[in-house]
Write a structure and sequence with these properties.
Elements: E1 5-14, E2 17-27, E3 32-36, H1 43-50, E4 58-63, E5 66-67, H2 72-76, E6 79-82, H3 94-104, H4 109-122, H5 138-150, E7 156-160, H6 168-181, E8 186-190, H7 194-200, E9 203-208, E10 211-217, H8 227-235
Parallel strand pairs: 3-8, 3-9, 6-7, 7-8
Antiparallel strand pairs: 1-2, 1-4, 4-5, 9-10
Length: about 240
């Protein structure tokens, strides 16, 4: 079952530096939601708080009502995470690696076998299932990263910059796969690519200096030529009214 996400006045400080500043946000079950913004906007900080890697300085994030602050272990058990630089064992075969990751998630026996076969089919990995991960293209490695994140059928899937470094064909293939996930999971996608957010996401949030500047429906992004132009249009000071 897809998860409902609620960020409530989330702040994160590192000494005098403010990485998140009272961020509030709600993501509906089954929604594919994108976070965009320039470097330093707070995207990665929010992902690390959402996944329980960091605790917020103030505020909280709820996943189906469970607090990341108070119930971090329970929340982590219900989410999957695929990061920009996949943490993969390069000397493992694909199937061996997926079985190992499933065991770490508490799967075993028929349940583990079904989970591994399911993600291999879902992400088109059958042709490389016995190949060492270190010998795969980056596109296939990203597929393996997504596959391990879905082994335990999480209600929330968090994906950070999934298509960086892929060629156009690989980008298109992976975007189609991610878009299809929204029918069974809530998906939070962090990306620098405006067109990626437009093509994959139902809604998109623009961050700047730890604050949510504006929420967009995905079709509203078509008029923006680039992320930089969108960012400038939303953050440029308004001209004062003339007397």
């Amino acid at each position: 079952m897809a998860a409902k996400i609620q960020a409530i006045e989330v702040s994160k400080r590192f000494g005098p530096q403010v990485a998140l500043d009272g961020l509030s946000l709600e993501i509906a079950p089954g929604e594919v939601f994108g976070l965009i913004g320039p470097n330093g906007a707070g995207k990665t900080t929010f992902l690390r708080i959402l996944t329980g890697y960091w605790l917020p300085t103030a505020g909280d994030v709820l996943i189906d009502g469970d607090s990341v602050v108070a119930n971090r272990t329970a929340v982590q058990a219900r989410l999957g995470y695929a990061c920009e630089q996949p943490k993969l064992y390069m000397d493992h075969g694909v199937e061996t690696f997926l079985r190992f990751m499933g065991e770490l998630r508490g799967l075993g026996g028929d349940e583990l076998r079904a989970a591994v076969e399911g993600v291999i089919a879902r992400f088109g990995l059958d042709e490389v299932r016995r190949r060492r991960i270190g010998l795969l293209s980056k596109g296939f490695r990203q597929r393996v990263s997504l596959a391990q994140a879905l082994l335990h059928n999480p209600s929330l899937l968090v994906i950070d910059e999934p298509t960086v470094g892929l060629d156009p064909r690989q980008q298109l293939d992976l975007r189609q796969v991610i878009q299809s996930l929204g029918s069974h999971h809530t998906v939070l996608l962090c990306t620098h690519q405006l067109r990626e957010a437009e093509s994959i996401c139902d809604r998109v949030g623009l961050l700047d200096r730890g604050r949510l500047i504006r929420l967009f429906e995905s079709d509203e992004l078509a008029a923006a030529g680039s992320l930089e132009e969108l960012f400038m249009a939303q953050t440029a000071p308004r001209a004062e009214a003339q007397p």
